Amino acid sequence: MTADAGPDPLPSWREGSIKRRLLAFVAAVCTPGDPAWVAPQERIAVFDNDGTLWSEQPMYVQLAFALQRVRCLVAERAELAHHPLVAAALADDIEALMGHGLEGLLELAAMTHAGMADAAFSALARAWLREARHPGLGVPYTGLVYQPMLELLALLRAREFRSWIVTGGGVEFVRVFAEETYGIPPERVIGSTLQLRYGEENGQPTVWREAVVDAINDGDAKPVGIARAIGRRPIAAFGNSDGDLAMLRWTTAGPGRRLGLLLHHDDDEREVAYDRASAFGRLDLGLELARRHGWSLVSLRRDWHRIFPTPLPQD
Q1: Phi-psi map region of 60: left, alpha, beta (phi>0 left; psi -120 to 50 alpha)
Q2: Would you say residue 2 has pLDDT above 70?
Q3: Rounded average pLDDT over 225-246
Q4: Would you kindly state where each structural domain of the chain is located, as residue ranges?
Q5: Is 270 exposed, middle or buried, given 0-12, 13-18 or 19+ CB atoms closer than 10 A?
Q6: CA-to-CA distance for 20 and 112, rounded, in angstroms?
Q7: At what angle do helices 171-182 and 101-113 cross, to 10 degrees?
Q8: Which residues are CB-neighbours of 13 under 8 A, at least 6 positions away?
Q9: CA distance 104 to 86
Q10: Residue 155 pLDDT exceeds 80
């Protein structure tokens, strides 16, 4: 597949080595007779979500949802305000929250997302996503998906790949919007989980969400989650932070043609520039490992002609 073989499937990617490598990889693994050809059932690609498929600044979208839920719950149960995580959330003290790490954020999610039927949570999250706006840009969070990644997902779909989301975020939260936003069905989302239990409500069978973190799907847990859910090693992996490195290393260490790609957020004019010092989506070791393992390191400033599907409001 080359740029002159038909309409450009990646128009938001600037011409250069990254785009050529993407197109060459897809062409090779999808062309019968090519030494790198891969059967359709083995064409599996895995994508991180926050910072890879949509914006994660100034905070994870699910954290913004949890902060709104905290205020609602404290209005009903004032004693919750004494919990350190809740107190930090009420004070909008993101630094204190991040001091508890991803485990602390998921504990906050457990407190704010539990105590309800699974279907009720999905309805609540879906309604919030319809109404919520990015605090700085005033646009829906689903308007902050990355257009180049949407094009890549569409290209892979057209070439009989099965794409999965593998996220540190809550699996049920991401499943609410993944199909409509990315074209990835809910059964292809792997993420952090709360404990669930089966019961009845008003005589109807129900799955309930408990306020207990069951699994944190980040770092070394990502390849484990992929192995459990998919049963095949992916041939392509896409991420943006050090939390994605195990997933990229496991994917690209397999036999045959492989592709690993890390996004480097270095465009402070059209998005946000961040890497080693960021509380969200920290990319430090990955900057070195990308060279060592031959992964593509995408510069948003240099490699993306366009970042979001529609122009954002000007300051």
Answers
A1: beta
A2: no
A3: 98
A4: 17-58+143-303, 61-131
A5: middle
A6: 45
A7: 90
A8: 19, 22, 148, 151, 303, 304, 305
A9: 11
A10: yes
Q: Cα-Cα-Cα-Cα dihedral of 108, 57, 139, 123, to 10°?
A: -30
pLDDT band at 154 (very low <50, low <70, confident <90, very high): very high
CA max distance for the chain: 66
Separation between Cα atoms, residue 224 and residue 302, nearest integer Å = 34
pLDDT, residue 189, reads 98
Strand partners, 194: 213
299 token code pair: 């510069």
Distance of alpha carbon 54 from alpha carbon 48, whole angstroms: 10
**Position of tokens 């949509």?**
54
Q: What is the pLDDT of residue 313?
A: 73
- Average pLDDT taken over every residue of the chain: 95
The H-assigned helical ranges of the chain are 17-30, 61-76, 84-90, 94-98, 101-113, 118-131, 147-158, 171-182, 221-229, 245-252, 285-293, 300-303
Q: What is the pTM of this model?
A: 0.95
Q: What is the fold of 17-58+143-303?
A: Rossmann fold (3.40.50)
CA nearest neighbour of 23 among 38, 42, 7, 10:
10
